[in-house]
Design brief:
CATH superfamily of one domain in chain B: HypD, alpha/beta domain 2
Number of domains of chain A: 1
Number of strands of chain A: 5
Helix content of chain B: 25-40%
Largest sheet of chain A: 5 strands, antiparallel
Radius of gyration of chain A: 15 Å
Largest interface: A-B, 38 and 58 residues
CATH topology of chain A: SH3 type barrels
Strand order of the largest sheet of chain A: 3-2-1-4-5
Strand content of chain B: 15-25%
Distance between the termini of chain B: 42 Å
Bound molecules: iron/sulfur cluster
CATH topology of one domain in chain B: Rossmann fold
CATH class of chain A: Mainly Beta
Oligomer: heterodimer
Strand content of chain A: 35-45%
Number of helices of chain A: 1
Order of helices and strands of chain B: HEHHEHEHEHEHEHEHHEHEHEEEEHHH
Structural class of chain A: alpha+beta
Number of helices of chain B: 15
Largest sheet of chain B: 5 strands, parallel
Structural class of chain B: alpha/beta
Shape of chain A: elongated
Chain lengths: 82, 389
């Protein structure tokens, strides 16, 4: 139920209702961006962002730097166990 | 796929298994014990991944994963399903629901059976999909079955706000949203269950953040690591729990930093607070009434509250006699210890909820893990493992 899938925002389709097309694994879906819009992140600035999609809503933005950091920590464990 | 494939790399997984092995055996300073360390993954999404990727079978026998109650379909009590079905069977109602809830057994039938008998029940992918149905059917009431943890509650709240903004009058929600931390506290207050730590729910935490779990570390002295859902996420989170145990720490840590911040998602939390109020108590299947563990629609949005608009049977109905789902959800029993597991109770003909949802422990064991895990448990009983200094 709490399933969420990463996708990338490709196009804003309805600025007023905060709707966008999001590419989720090659399939473009209509997604509501209300949860990820605030003063610093207006609708029009969101194209290109990666988000987590859950029941038609973008729950949060995916932080690219943090993802890289996690992968780096994983590689440190790999190095440690060699 | 980006943010998926890199967290499924098998070689990195091997290294993590090695590290888990090292930390849970003699090399670390984890207190000597005859028993395996019990780590609960709270979320049903984690349970599903753990089986799908064979994590449970590949873990050393010094670690036992306990599958928690974080599957909203599994914790839905029979009485609530009866209420939903009673609503759906009213002649002027179009009842909309996520597909996940269709097969959950009520005391007499499921929504799927009610649909076959003629009730107008429609599956939707998003609660927002119910709004056009309401607009197209002005002479009918469209009800959406709002279920799920804090992950899903914002989408229900935002759908109500949208319906209010559009002035839609023939739409309401039967809200059955549940809250994760009160359920954890109920488990931790149960002396039958001895746990060493938690892998915390990632997507709930994208909304609520990591702060609400601090009570688990501070009051109950258990480590909790909020985790992503890919295999490397889960394995790294187990490593982080073990590191805490080895160092004698009990903290809330965050493995899923690419999506979870300590404060959560403010916009989503605001939407929840605007539309919902916390119920005094809510009934969970198998766990009974838990105080402050569910959400209801608040007075300001009573026009969108199916409970305010319609009279529901509102009865608590005990589980089927054979059903052990309560013990499964508490992590006290394993699925194969239920007498009807895999015989009278299968995903095709479920008796209990844990066999309905693909995130339920029984369905996960049935589909992926049954034989290998049962074999491993049998072996474990024979050869006692020593985790020494
Ligand atoms: S096997 Fe079926 S009845 Fe038994 S605990 Fe699992 S879901 Fe419930």
């Amino acid at each position: 139920m709490c399933l969420g899938i990463p996708g990338q925002i490709v196009e804003i389709t309805d600025e007023k209702n905060k709707l966008a097309l999001v590419n989720v694994g090659g399939v473009k879906r209509q997604v509501n961006l209300a949860c990820i819009i605030d003063r610093e992140n207006p609708v029009e600035s969101c194209v290109g962002d990666w988000v987590l999609v859950h029941v038609g809503f973008a729950l949060n933005r995916i932080d690219e730097e943090e993802a890289a950091e996690t992968l780096k920590m994983l590689q440190e464990i790999v190095a440690l166990t060699k | 796929m980006k943010y998926i494939n890199e967290f499924r790399d098998p070689q990195t997984a091997q290294a993590l298994f090695k590290e888990i092995n090292r930390l849970s055996r003699g090399d670390s300073r984890i207190a000597p014990t005859e028993k395996p360390l019990k780590i609960m993954e709270i979320c049903g999404g984690h349970t599903h991944s753990i089986f799908k990727y064979g994590i449970e079978a590949a873990l050393p026998d010094t670690i036992e994963l306990i599958h928690g109650p974080g599957c909203p379909v599994c914790v839905m009590p029979r009485g609530k399903l009866d209420d939903a079905i009673a609503l759906a069977e009213q002649p002027n109602i179009i009842f909309t629901t996520f597909g996940d809830a269709m097969r959950v057994p009520g005391s007499k039938k499921s929504l799927l059976q009610a649909k076959a008998e003629g009730a107008d029940i429609r599956m939707v992918y998003s609660p927002l999909d119910a709004l056009p149905i309401a607009k197209e059917n002005p002479d009918k009431e469209v009800v959406f079955f709002g279920i799920g943890f804090e992950t899903t509650a914002p989408s229900t709240a935002l759908t109500i706000l949208q319906a209010a903004a559009e002035g839609i009058k023939n739409f309401s929600i039967f809200a059955n949203h549940v809250l994760v931390v009160p359920a954890l506290e109920a488990l931790l207050n149960n002396p039958d269950l001895q746990l060493d730590g938690f892998v915390g729910p990632g997507h709930v935490s994208t909304i609520i953040g990591t702060k609400p779990y601090e009570i688990i570390a501070e009051t109950y002295h258990k480590p909790l690591v909020v985790s992503g859902f890919e295999p490397l996420d889960i394995l790294q989170s187990i490593v982080m729990v073990l590191q805490q145990l080895a160092e004698g720490r009990c903290e809330v840590e965050n493995q899923y930093t690419r999506l979870v911040e300590s404060e959560g998602n403010k916009v989503a939390l605001d939407a929840i607070n605007k539309v919902f109020a916390v119920r005094d108590e809510f009934e969970w299947r198998g766990l009974g009434n838990i105080s402050q563990s569910g959400l209801k629609i608040n007075e300001n949005y009573a026009n969108f509250d199916a409970e305010a608009k319609f009279t529901l049977p509102n009865r608590q109905v005990a589980d089927a006699a054979a059903c052990q789902c309560g013990e499964i959800l508490k992590g006290v029993l394993k699925p194969w210890q239920c007498k009807v597991f895999g015989t009278a109770c299968t995903p095709e003909n479920p008796i209990g909820t844990c066999m309905v949802s693909s995130e339920g422990a029984c369905a996960a064991y049935y589909k992926y893990g049954r034989l290998s895990t049962v074999g491993k448990q049998a072996k474990f009983k024979k050869t006692k493992v020593k985790v020494a200094n």
